[in-house]
Amino acid sequence: MENDITVIFVSFHSEDIIEKSIATINHNIPIIVIENSRNFTFKEKLEKKYSNIKVIIPDKNLGNGAGINRGIKNINTKYVFYLDVDTELFPDTIKNLMNAAKEIKSFSILAPKINNFDYKNDCYLNSNKKGKYSPMRFVTGCALFFEKKLFNEIGFFDENIFLYFEETDLFHRCKKKHHKVL
Predict the structure, then answer these.
(1) Which stretch of 2-11, 128-137, 148-157, 170-179 has the lowest confidence by average pLDDT?
(2) What is the pLDDT of residues 31-66, one digit of tens each?
(3) Which ranges in 59-127 belong to alpha helices (H)?
(4) Residue 110 CA: distances (Å) to CA of 41, 98, 101, 116, 151
(5) What gap in Å lies between CA 26 and CA 94, rounded to an integer?
(6) CA 107 to CA 5: how far, in whole Å?
(7) To the nearest whole percent, how much of the chain has pLDDT over 90?
């Protein structure tokens, strides 16, 4: 399982919060951190402390979408799991997403249900919320699971969107190509 997935974080001065998120991820799973603040001391600290982490420092602050793209272009695994730096996982989250990916087979984005997020009716594509996986119009962008090949079909995050709504743009492009967001 760990060989099929890479976790990506995009960070900007997140050294005080990211390790809480990292602690919720199995240490056999590779993690890429795109550090937009150009903090080389932070890079050295993370890479020394965690053998599964690679920190990439771009020449300039790329923003979130372009940061995710940079991470995706640096992985060789089948699946990508993007997490905001303050997102903490339950112990089975990644295993459950991997199992769902194998079961569903055809999807563009899988998003775990987020605690304390109020999923309004307009988030769902239909009113049948009783299924195991709900087709969604909107999912919060703090935790997004993809099959890497999606980006060859849909395109990467729009790098003209620096921060906020970059995932909404991706959702719309997925829907236009009839790809499922679940």
Answers:
(1) 128-137
(2) 999 999 999 999 999 999 999 999 999 999 988 888
(3) 64-72, 93-104
(4) 34, 10, 8, 18, 14
(5) 9
(6) 16
(7) 43
In SS3 terms, 15-38 reads as CCCHHHHHCCCCCCCCEEEEECCC
The three-point CA angle 56-61-62 to 5° equals 80
Q: How far apart are CA 97 and CA 145, in angstroms?
A: 7
Token pair recorded at residue 47:
């890479």
Pair of tokens at residue 28:
């056999």
pLDDT, tens digit (0-9, with 9 covering 90-100), for 83-94:
989 999 989 999
Residue 129 makes CB contacts below 8 A (sequence gap 6+) with none
Q: Where are the beta strands (DSSP E) in the chain?
A: 5-11, 31-35, 53-56, 79-83, 109-110, 143-147
